[in-house]
Amino acid sequence: MNHDESEMADAPMESNTPRTSDQNLETPADSARREGRPVLAGLMAGIVVSVLILWTAPSLREPFLFSGFPDPAAPVGEKQIRQAERRVEQLARKVRSRIPRGAYLVVSSSDNTFRLMQGEDVLREGLCSTGSYVQLRGHEGKEWLFETPRGGFRILDKRRNPVWVKPDWAFVEAGEPIPPPGSSKRYERGVLGDYAMALGDGYLIHGTLYQRLLGSPVTHGCVRLGDADLEAAFKALPIGARVFIY
Amino acid sequence: MPFEPGKIFAPFLESLRAFHRDRRKVWRFYAPAVLLPLLVLLLTVGVPVVGWYVAEEETPAGESAAAVDEPVQPGEIQEGVGPARARLDSLRRAEAVLSARLALGETRKIGLVINLAAQEAALEVEGVPVRVCAARTIRASRALRLLLEGDEGPAELLFTLEAEEATIPKQPIRVVQAPQDTAEANARPPADLPVETSAPHIRLSFDRGLVVSIRSSPRSIGDWLKAFTLETRARFREIGGHVRRLAVGDVPSLQPWIALTLAPEDARALYRALPESAKLVVVP
Question: What is the value of ipTM here, to two decimals?
């Protein structure tokens, strides 16, 4: 190999690709943006993984929780066991005694259903209507929220062919002027069905003209039952019977 | 044309190789991609777990449950201590559960009973179960199981509700303006009956750090998004709490939790029935 050929062999190969005008003209901003892309991509990947960790954190902790080794058990005597059995039996009896022995009513204001119960047996179940959760705003700053109260109640009174004593909201809702307390306009017959049972504070279990709306939350707070269900409940529940509404 | 996976993925693999040859790019990508999740892992897993062990060490030993019963007399010790001990432990747990349920009934308010073994959640009013819901799944953290079993016998099984949040309103109130007169009242069309079809996701926070998450299978992407937002916000609040405690030199505590999946109607009924400061009994 002569000298020229060895120089050519050692000389690096020059790229024949000319530099583009864009690369020649890249601004510092463009350069910074290009440099920042991996950081942004890494941040986004980090955020996705972090959200996954956040979501699964409670489960991720579980394998690391131990309470140490249990102490050796203390000796156990027959008397201790018998005493514990007696206490459990007494408590179980007390818990069982909480369930009423006579008939009682359970109303679900969430599903608008009822169950007439005796002990743990279901005597009858079906649809009812409870409070609509409408908040009626009157013109003089008065407001009424039509909800059925929840909790434990007792039947305080029972009536056949009840007469509805209309409260103020009934007139406000109809756009009518509110009559004075003793006015005959306050009394309406035939709208509460054949029976009514009072729970206190003006709340009743009664019938309805709108049987097709049973199962929907449409009342002003009272519990409405269908005719046959109302009759069955009226006959089964004495004064003092428990009513549970949730 | 034959399927040649090598040809399809080759450009992608080549670009990955090229990327990894540039050390600066590699650092710039992996630093935030790894450090951020590590920080989140530390705050949501590491710190609470450490706090759990620190709290365990600091908890003073309570009175021995054996002191409640008469001491064992000589000659009275049963053969086969294992089964006898298991029987006594089981009776003590039953006693704790029944006592808690009696206490719940005495509050005269609607309360919640979650039975982990029977996989049920029930509403009780004055000691009477009014709605028993079968849970599709129930999971409880080990921290809760250890809390309930206690070192010296069953711990207090009654909890008090302190805060609640959900993807549905607590009361589905609709505001209606009263009509001016009967003409306007008669002209109004009948109101549409509300129909709730969403799958609620509920988070109940009780005392002693217990969190109960009531879930139902999402029925739409909207349900899923709301549930995701609620849980993510809760996690961020938890992290914020850990950071605040660390800042004052305190050790963050681990939240025991229960997660149950119910039918949407059951979840809705349970959530709306629970009053303020409702009581919960957890049956192990």
Answer: 0.80
